Structure formats: structure tokens, C-alpha cells
Amino acid sequence: MDRLIILLIVILISGCGGTNASVYQKMAEERSAKIASEELKSESLRKSCLSNVDGIKSAITPTDFFLKLKEIDFQKNEYESSIDYNSRIYRELSKHGIPLGKHLYVKKKFDPNYIQYDADRKVVNFSRWGVSNHKVKCSSLYKYGTDLCGFDNKEINLDYSEISNGSYIASNAFGVTANVTKIEHSVKGLLEGALKRDYSGPIESSIWTAMDNNNVIFQFRDVEINTAKWLKDNTEVVIGFQLKTPFLVVSNYRYEPTIKSKTERNYIYEYAMADIQCAALTDTKSNLLITQKLR
Length: 295
Fold this sequence. Notes:
alpha+beta
């Protein structure tokens, strides 16, 4: 079965007289303990990244993960045999706490703009856009049409930022001058490869298993208002994966300014090549709330 979603229907009880953080923290700890002791013991999950509860709880930030990767020289030099290269990379990864063949976990804040509460149904929906809302320009990394670059790809963007990098005066061949603003965009994420398009599901082009046409990937039911507010402010997402060759791919892509768009945009892509396997929602104290196996 290519798709497996574990929908944990939880009964969340709100506190009286406003939001009481300790009430919800206790709820999250109880939820996490139940998952660890009961719901991850099935044979199908024991060997998956969902079974490593300690790993999920000790997930690091994308910034810390990429800082570790960038300390390693993944370039094979001409005097290095394949055996020596593989041995060196294995040692370097292990030295930086990134062992090959084992599950790694990174965490990020779930964008609260994509957590929606339905007060009539008492349901909290989490959209996939709250995890990954920027697509990689795959052709800047690999040739389009290969197994690593398709129309849609198995990818999760972990971090996105943009900064203004000054401005300059530019002119074209007709002597028209303009003040051009320089914007630098930074995208960090995980890339597995091209996604085969599936026209039978509610989403045709996603690594996620969605629950409906609104891209809902996680859902809590029977949720009172105060609990819904707490979830929106205190939910993180953890992504589980295994690193694979060529490990780290870095590329730049530049959009030139035009008369209509007087902005020069430079995109810096940093993608870890990975076998992306699972996702989990936790609270800010790393207590497990709900999980999903990714396809």
C-alpha cells in the first residue's frame, strides 16, 4: 500500500475561563505517551521512521542541519578513489551527527496561516502549504525530464527567506534608465526526485497523502475553541528522511530586471538529496500529536 495515513482522532478538552497553557501541555504529553506506547507498535511502522519517537523528539532546525552539511566537502577529487571517497564522506557525516542509512529529523514551525478551525464541525485542519509553500526550480539543479527533475517533484521546502540587497541604476539599449532593486531569495529543503503524476487522487502532484481537495494533510476533531487557538500557536512539523547521494546540491538562478519589473531576483537553492519518509506534528515541547507516512 503506497499510501498510509494515520488519522489520530483526539478528543481535546479546553480549559475554562481562557487559554491555560499548562492544560494543553499536559494534553500534548498524554497524547505523545499514547502514540509512543500503543500506536507505533504495528509491524508496518516498526521499521519506518515513525517508530523512532526519540529521534522525532530530538529533531533539529533546518538552519542547524544545513550548517552541518555545508561543513563537509562532498566534491570527489581526481586523486580520490571511489572507495576512499565513500569512506571519507561516511566519516565526515558521522562526525557531524548525520549517519548514513539512519533516519534524520528536522523540524520547523507549522505556518499558522494554514491551520484553519471549523467552529461548526469543531475540526482543526492543517494544509500542506503550512509545511512547504515554495517550489524548487528543479531545472536549475538537474536536467528536466530525468528521475531527479520532473514537472512535479518529491520535495519539501524547509526554509525560505528574502532580503533586499541594495539597488543600482541600469539602462537598456534604447537609453531608458531605471533604479533596479536587488532581492536575494534563499530556499533550503529536501529533494527526493521526480514525482510520477497520479490523476486518481485528490492531489495530483504532492508527496503528501491529502484527506480532501483542500490539501488537508492533518486533522484534529472534537476540538474546542481555546484548544484550536493553542494548536495554531504551538504546532511544529517534523520531517523524517534518510540522506542519499549526491547529498547536497547548491544552485543559483537569476531573474533579470525588465522595464515593467525593475527588480533583479537571485534565488539560492540549497537542497539535501533525501529519501523523504514521514512527517509528524508536535507541540513546541516536542510532544508527538499526529503522524503521517509519506509516499
